[in-house]
Amino acid sequence: MAHPLSVGLAGLGTVGGGTLALLRANAELIAARAGRPITVTAVSARDRGRDRGVPLAGLRWFEDPVALATDPGVDVFVEAIGGADGPARASVEAALAAGKPVVTANKAMLAVHGAAIAAQAEATGAPLLFEAAVAGGIPAIKALREGLAANRITRVAGILNGTCNYILTMMRAEAREFAEALAEAQRLGYAEADPSFDIDGIDAAHKLAILAALAFGRPVDFGSVHVEGIRSVSALDIAFAGELGYRIKLLGIAERTAAGVSARIHPVMIPVTSPLAPVEGVFNAVAFEGDFVGRVLLEGRGAGAGPTASAIVADLIDIARGRHTPPFGMAASLLSAEPAVPITEREGAYYLRLMVVDRPGVIADISAILRDHSVSLESMLQRGRSPGEAVPVVLTTHICREAAMAAALARIGALDSVIAPPTLLRIEAL
Amino acid sequence: MAHPLSVGLAGLGTVGGGTLALLRANAELIAARAGRPITVTAVSARDRGRDRGVPLAGLRWFEDPVALATDPGVDVFVEAIGGADGPARASVEAALAAGKPVVTANKAMLAVHGAAIAAQAEATGAPLLFEAAVAGGIPAIKALREGLAANRITRVAGILNGTCNYILTMMRAEAREFAEALAEAQRLGYAEADPSFDIDGIDAAHKLAILAALAFGRPVDFGSVHVEGIRSVSALDIAFAGELGYRIKLLGIAERTAAGVSARIHPVMIPVTSPLAPVEGVFNAVAFEGDFVGRVLLEGRGAGAGPTASAIVADLIDIARGRHTPPFGMAASLLSAEPAVPITEREGAYYLRLMVVDRPGVIADISAILRDHSVSLESMLQRGRSPGEAVPVVLTTHICREAAMAAALARIGALDSVIAPPTLLRIEAL
């Protein structure tokens, strides 16, 4: 058996600690599958004194992750620090500059600087692997970059954030409001004290930007991802969705159309019969559509120490075996810069909930505005009657352009009889 | 870009023809992802005159696949002939002996001769890849062998035969009997004229033998797979399953327990809430359970020209990129021969349907026999009353040993009041 692969690990939080624990727990099995032992020999973290529950005896300690990344005794650098910039980016760039393979779980860094970092990796010939950056333990990156590499990918759609999926699952299963479900998620450790990164869709958007780059062979372009989170999803809309045969999920969808590539994160209504509908709680799922393979769905745990470590160590085994792939599946010079299609170009169906004063003529006014913008109604639902008071009215449309829907909505929202900002949800037949 | 990878393709049926079509349709994309063009330059098939819908002009024609496999102008040999022995095996062995990489979709050959063929590949250093042999277009082999390589796998469970899944789906959705659903599957081309290979579970067992070898790091052992097909599943049992909150599926299950490894194909009842329950029609799905990653589920099309070609070309891209892995994930010398655990050692719950004469004392007799064998009842269901005539009685048990259940069943089947052979289905909480 070849000499051990010496790993320098920066960051000893959930991800780094989990990686260290996994490499030790399954050392013999990993050595067999990697063709050689994989051993963490040096680490770096912010606070040397903190007890992390994994013994650090025998490991060389670096105060500076950049020094760790370029140390001659380190064969591979694992970045588990986090953050798009700062020490994470500095150490990754230093490792690549030194021609050293890098494994990272850092979706923010890859989404924002991925194109430049991949170009650097290509220039120095150093492998750059990031299975753990998307969908945790699900081998989604490998499936897309290698397993489905023969296909022209037409669409990627996924539940990419476990925090949001947990909150939406709780809201539906227990008929709770968003704030209450969020508090419960925080209590259980599924949401951060400051949850905005997750619930505003930014984390999912980072992941989608990476998937879209791989799927469509284009440089990572986080800036072109349309992002909406789940703060405005209400228990009432979840209940109406159920009545109409839908579930509400926060989905990331990237599509290739004749006009270019669109990538967007927002709450959607999908049919209960969709294979993504039963994916509940903290689970993630990604569906790829390829021209020869059809639809392939992958589901599993999208976060946590074990699943994330599983992905990082898979990358290390690839490196140990010498299995090498360009970071985004092909040489950077071959990546195409197809235009990004804005959300206003979306063609699809919509769910619209209005709080209106229950009086004659209101529906007529709304219908007329929709007609003026060529938006065709599929269904209308008004539950209960309270003459002169506010009642919810739910409309679903046939397929129309988002720009038309938005223009109609602006006028509808301005009607006297509409007494709260309208709620709009996109319906996807995934 | 490097020189093209020259492919010799033996077999021009659904699989071979699809591979040729895919390599041509997505040639530019595949060249970008593979780092070089991948081109079929030579083919072999039984009947040169037959029109296959793909132009063969410019390709060298070989009457003998063994000659094709060893031709100096061929860089990689793709075997799409089929059959465990005969020309398929001869040509694969010839290619490997010549040190030439082999890609095959041949699950029968791998299940029966996989250990020997993999050892030969290892001895000559020639890559042997077979993504298309299991679950069609789903990158299940790559996920297991590479993506989840850091994990000790505890269980593999899958819907591995689209023909059976289609028949069971039709039986449930349209309340049809087996023979009728089979005829419909044959009419649609989802089942062969001689369907026994699929419906008796042999095809699924081939795939499970391959998955079990990869999952548990042991030589392929088709002989130790317990195989039952779906001929005996009745519309009545499917209806009762629905009433009890279950679906009936033909599953392949391979598990590692303290006693060794068990692998079995048989119809099972799984809860409707199982992630495998909504996998319907010709779709396949595989669930892997790993000690760090938890459960990962993959779903997609398990057969057909496009999905199978997608898997074969993914293997060719791996070869073009020089991504090399031992056929079963680790060196043959490291594979362990854990004992195979027979089905009689299964511990689980059971569903039992009896056709009994409706008269006092029958249930008491049955209950007494179950008690004698320490089988504990969970539920009992008798629909309708027809004193003196035959009625179905459905029992479900708590967890017990298969051997005990089988012994009890033999005695129950021999009761005068039990007027047809009992139906037994295993319940799995997957």
TrEMBL record, chains A, B:
<dbReference type="InterPro" id="IPR019811">
    <property type="entry name" value="HDH_CS"/>
</dbReference>
<dbReference type="GO" id="GO:0009088">
    <property type="term" value="P:threonine biosynthetic process"/>
</dbReference>
<keyword id="KW-0486">Methionine biosynthesis</keyword>
<dbReference type="Pfam" id="PF03447">
    <property type="entry name" value="NAD_binding_3"/>
</dbReference>
<comment type="pathway">
    <text>Amino-acid biosynthesis.</text>
</comment>
<dbReference type="GO" id="GO:0050661">
    <property type="term" value="F:NADP binding"/>
</dbReference>
<dbReference type="InterPro" id="IPR002912">
    <property type="entry name" value="ACT_dom"/>
</dbReference>
<dbReference type="InterPro" id="IPR005106">
    <property type="entry name" value="Asp/hSer_DH_NAD-bd"/>
</dbReference>
<keyword id="KW-0791">Threonine biosynthesis</keyword>
<comment type="similarity">
    <text>Belongs to the homoserine dehydrogenase family.</text>
</comment>
<dbReference type="Pfam" id="PF01842">
    <property type="entry name" value="ACT"/>
</dbReference>
<keyword id="KW-0521">NADP</keyword>
<dbReference type="Pfam" id="PF00742">
    <property type="entry name" value="Homoserine_dh"/>
</dbReference>
<dbReference type="GO" id="GO:0004412">
    <property type="term" value="F:homoserine dehydrogenase activity"/>
</dbReference>
<dbReference type="InterPro" id="IPR016204">
    <property type="entry name" value="HDH"/>
</dbReference>
<protein>
    <recommendedName>
        <fullName>Homoserine dehydrogenase</fullName>
        <ecNumber>1.1.1.3</ecNumber>
    </recommendedName>
</protein>
<dbReference type="InterPro" id="IPR001342">
    <property type="entry name" value="HDH_cat"/>
</dbReference>
<feature type="domain" description="ACT">
    <location>
        <begin position="351"/>
        <end position="426"/>
    </location>
</feature>
<keyword id="KW-0560">Oxidoreductase</keyword>
<dbReference type="GO" id="GO:0009086">
    <property type="term" value="P:methionine biosynthetic process"/>
</dbReference>
<keyword id="KW-0028">Amino-acid biosynthesis</keyword>
